[in-house]
């Protein structure tokens, strides 16, 4: 997905025109919840995502064993991971912001299912357990194979991203769906022109950053999985903890990039609902596009922020003149085939909900 720190899912590399603005996502990216359940509950009450810890945490033998993953040895984790897998069970590789929202929405649609989260460390396993996600460590070589797998992990923490995707593919039993969350960055358009699902991508070899994504996508398509290329992700936990380019720019006041660069957005909740809609279709070897179909220039975004009256600060100006332009994404074909519409049709409408 087109993850700018401010829009970040998922888990994804920065949009090409903004590559110089943002640092790679920190390890804290995989946990947007506070370290205690009370803080977690406060977040969901505030933003009306309506995640109930009590409803997500199911007293099952699997979760009882999952709690022992904190400080457990690899051998112990391997033993505890050998469980029966149900027909609607879901494995989330990289259960960060996007992955956790997918987990919440998936459980709403499939009560009683088991949801698993694969991470690179045990740092946030307790949080996952509280949410009803059964954690495991990457490289555990579990014997389990799942009917539904979604790969949300970013390339920033991987030395071999395509290899990691291939390894995740081995955990799919081929019966439901495998979905890889990519970015819209590979589309070969940087003149603010139109771009849709059929727009050609950047040739391999031109950009190391897009090469990483395209090679991972190729692996997914080869074993029959699907790809969703996401636009810039954003969400508001509370006004002081927003994720989105608007929040980053607001904190800076003045930013040395051109104001007319076009950005494309999708709210985290909408990205999650689109991912689930694709998973349910049980399709093979397809590429989809996720965006809100309301592209905006940087200046338009910050004008909306300033005019909203929802923020204590005011953005001053963009001062750049020579950096690249963007693209205007349209995913009407994806919407028609999947039967999906966003909860937040535009960034302006999202601001009205704050």
TrEMBL record:
Keywords: Isomerase, NAD. Gene3D superfamilies: NAD(P)-binding Rossmann-like Domain. It comes from the Eukaryota. GO terms for molecular function: isomerase activity. Belongs to the NAD(P)-dependent epimerase/dehydratase family. PANTHER family: EPIMERASE-RELATED. This is NAD(P)-binding Rossmann-fold superfamily protein. It comes from Cannabis sativa. The lineage of its organism: Eukaryota, Viridiplantae, Streptophyta, Embryophyta, Tracheophyta.
